[in-house]
Amino acid sequence: MDVKKKYQKLQEFIRSLRRVVVAFSGGVDSTLLLKVCLDALGRDNVIAFIGTSPAHPERETTEAINSAQQLGADSVVVQTKEMENADFTSNPRERCYHCKSGLLDQIRKVAQTRGIATIVEGSNVDDENDFRPGSRAVTEKNVLSPLKSVGLTKFEIRELSRSLNLPTHDKPSFACLASRVPYGTTITKEILKQIELSEEFLKSLGLRQVRVRYHGEVSRIEAEGEDMATIIQHRNKIYEGLKALGFTFITLDLKGYRTGSLNE
Q1: Which of 45, 82, 164, 241 would staple 99 via disulfide (CB 3.0–4.6 Å)?
Q2: Per-residue pLDDT tens for 28-69?
Q3: Residue 28 to residues 61, 87, 115, 217, 222: CA-CA distances in angstroms?
Q4: Is the pTM for the entire model greater than 0.90?
């Protein structure tokens, strides 16, 4: 099925839902999903749920709020509670399941207060190729994944976003800051802020797709191949910058950026 037919199928799928709450992060996938929901159902029948958390950079939350406003969506911003859950902060391999499960419970409460039965979220078919415990929570909580249901890939979602003039069409992929911490290492607000500020510092040098993996005193920087020269060029500045943020040793991962490297 070509992308145009998938898009038509997506519109039909969403029209059948009548009213929805969209789990909205401001990323590529959820932005397309929110846009299509608004177009298919109308503003009065769509709510964008935006969660704020130490596990998400302030910039990402601000961008999500602004994006929802620009799309004309009614949004609800809620502080999520995963940092109060020991099943999350103890950082087991199922961490994402516990986070997603709690998040969806909070979204369900908002949906119920608005008299809305359906929650949708932005997973796509490519997500099935990665280790994603959170997808189990989506199934258990009876949350729908329209993009995945119609067979859309990440590439196709970007293409559709470009055709709809969505500014997120080329936005780098993003995962929560907790994904930078090895399993078994306790997640704290301090560690998450250290990672957030380190990545913001690197982005200020012009890096777009970058991760700072936390290994105690050691930071392991993952960047795309074409950005490694920039890192070497600014190595002294990066060393001083990340040292000031609490790291003793600052390293560059020669394999480069990839999703889920802590699952290796």
Answers
A1: 82
A2: 999 999 999 999 999 999 999 999 999 999 999 999 999 999
A3: 14, 28, 28, 33, 21
A4: yes
